[in-house]
Amino acid sequence: MISVNDIWIELTDEGCPKTGFLRRRIPMSNGVNIFAVILSPLGLPALLMEVDTKTTNDTFDIECFGFNLKTLTRKDAVMGLVRCIVLELSDNKYRDIFNVVADDVVSNVAKEADEIHGIVTFTNQIMKWKNFFNKYGVKGLSKQLQHGLWGELWVIKSILSPIWGIDNSIVSWVGPNGANQDFSNELACIEVKTSISPPHKKFVVSNVLQLIGYPDIKMFLVFVALDVRRSRIGSLPQLVNEIRETLDNTNPQVLSLFNSKLIRYGYLDMHEQKYLNTGYHVRNSILFKVVDGFPRILEDDIPNGVGDLRYSVSVSSCLNFIVETTELSDSIRVSNT
Prior knowledge:
Blueprint: H1 4-14, E1 21-25, E2 33-39, E3 44-52, E4 62-64, E5 67-76, E6 80-89, H2 95-109, H3 115-136, H4 143-164, H5 166-172, E7 183-184, E8 188-195, E9 202-205, E10 218-230, H6 236-250, H7 252-265, H8 272-275, E11 278-289, E12 311-314, H9 325-335
Parallel strand pairs: 8-10
Antiparallel strand pairs: 1-2, 2-3, 3-6, 4-5, 5-6, 7-8, 9-12, 10-11
Helix pairs in contact: 2-3, 4-5, 4-6, 4-9, 6-7
């Protein structure tokens, strides 16, 4: 599907009207009427979704970083009363972000079967982006989140993909979805802990459920010690693009899933320049099997009234639980038989 921004550029080249707006319908096989719009007098871009008032009379009023969603009703000579759901840019300094949001909204609405489902998806995607920016802001990932994401992607590329395949590795990456562990399949859960502070003596458990498995599901922890340097070699964008290239050559559908999970994690390509000059090198990685006796806090250990528990674990206390990747590999292979 053509980028919405490309249509906005074409409309802008036609010249912004002194009053009213320019619009062009975005072709969709499901018949949903979405238009790319340039608003006068400032020439700011917008998305406009037209629906029959019999379909919905809901009113939407959502404000976010530099854009907002609103509704209005207009009279059409042919259609009669038409409900318009308008997503408009209000501050041009957020134009790059708005382009990303618009493409995401349009691509998801295009997947729906009809207008009713299209309306729900249109507004739901806006709420998801509002929640996203409330959580991460518009400046990109914090240093801590960058390190964590790099570690999880390295595990995908270097540990999981050789024994599970790149497609299954991406499907198993459930951390961006809010799961308790970073990866899981039918028989194994995997939590990744990344350290950038020499001498890499401990890791932090930020959610007590991270190291609590489930019946009949093996639990593993990967500890990744990183060196950080000022370099484009080993940068977060480089690792992201390496995985994308692999997926593009094997399964474009999984590539779409990967990109979606990156966004949920908080990674946007528009922030690439922020991450380009920080390179990572794996000094050491250790695979632990989390079983009875592993240093952790279990739910039964938590007194009533205690919540939001966060604690650290020394790596030296876990050494008796080190296993080879073959044990993780065996668990994965069993789940595929």
